[in-house]
Specification:
heterodimer, A: mainly beta, Immunoglobulin-like, three-stranded antiparallel β-sheet, 1 helix, 9 strands, elongated, B: mainly beta, 8 strands
Chain lengths: 144, 128
């Protein structure tokens, strides 16, 4: 049996710092103004016509993922299953598993019918088109 | 070669300069050992096969996944950085030529079989 110490990690100090930050809910580097409110971790950005939400969901069957939108609140829920238990020894167990649910408030009105969600390489990208009522409208000025 | 298989480089060829690695995050890993092999599972959300670099050089395993994130118009962020980077010193009793790597849904599974000499052997005792 290989001893735990044999499977040594390089740069273990950096690693421990990462763990501290992870526990505190910060990714490294500290993203300015970032807060960690639950699983999955999300990023939200906007462009002219839509809000784009990205969620880190590695190793999840997209079919097991549930997404609902109600009155500007998007709710994501699902489960990450643990790998098959075998006879052996765990040297590290940092990847979590279990059920999760998270609600995210969308900052402005969106067009719920045109929401699109793509899952690729463990990243869920949700495109939420802005409602026509919040899009800037160009008004022609009549010259008399 | 299956689509989800990854080429394993025998040498660590740094894809990015060290200063860029400082901004990379160490991925969460599970390491499991049984009689035949060590299995390492790492969460690399958003990393595709093309962005992943795996290397084993002098018993040091390097996992590196580069990411290019759209930063424009960011309203709220809980993850950032330009990718994942983590290194491990491997034990010596592995048969590194038999290493097998798979990437699926942002999860890397690396199977490192043990060398024949390191596997437990049952010795029959003959009673006279």
């Amino acid at each position: 049996m290989t001893g735990f110490d044999l499977f040594k990690e390089m740069d273990s100090f950096t690693r421990e710092m990462d763990q501290v930050f992870r526990d505190l809910g910060f990714g490294r580097p500290l993203v300015p103004g970032s807060v960690y409110r639950g699983y999955p971790r999300i990023n939200l950005r906007e462009n002219q016509d839509a809000y784009i939400l990205e969620a880190q969901l590695p190793g999840i069957d997209p079919k097991e993922l549930e997404m609902t939108i109600l009155k500007g609140t998007l709710t994501l829920s699902g489960e990450r299953k643990a790998g098959a238990e075998e006879q052996g020894t765990w040297h590290r167990r940092e990847r979590g598993f279990g059920k999760f649910m998270r609600s995210i408030d969308i900052p402005a009105e969106i067009d719920g019918d045109k929401v699109r969600a793509d899952y690729k390489d463990g990243l869920l990208t949700v495109t939420l088109p802005k409602a026509a009522s919040v899009l800037p409208k160009r008004i022609e000025i009549q010259a008399n | 070669m299956k689509n989800n298989e990854i080429t394993l480089h025998k040498q660590n060829t740094p894809a990015v300069a060290d200063k860029d690695r400082a901004a990379m995050i160490a991925p969460a890993v599970d390491i499991f050992e049984n009689d035949d092999a060590l299995t390492l599972v790492a969460d690399l959300p958003g990393v595709s096969k093309e962005q992943l670099e795996l290397g084993i050089d002098r018993q040091v395993l390097t996992i590196e996944g580069r990411l290019e994130r759209a930063e424009e118009g960011a309203l709220y962020r809980e993850f950032g950085g330009n990718g994942f980077y983590r290194r491990f010193h491997l034990p010596e009793n592995l048969d590194l030529n038999q290493t097998n790597a798979e990437l699926k849904d942002g999860v890397l599974t690396l199977r490192l079989p043990k060398a024949a000499s390191a596997k437990p052997r049952r010795i029959e005792v003959t009673v006279h």
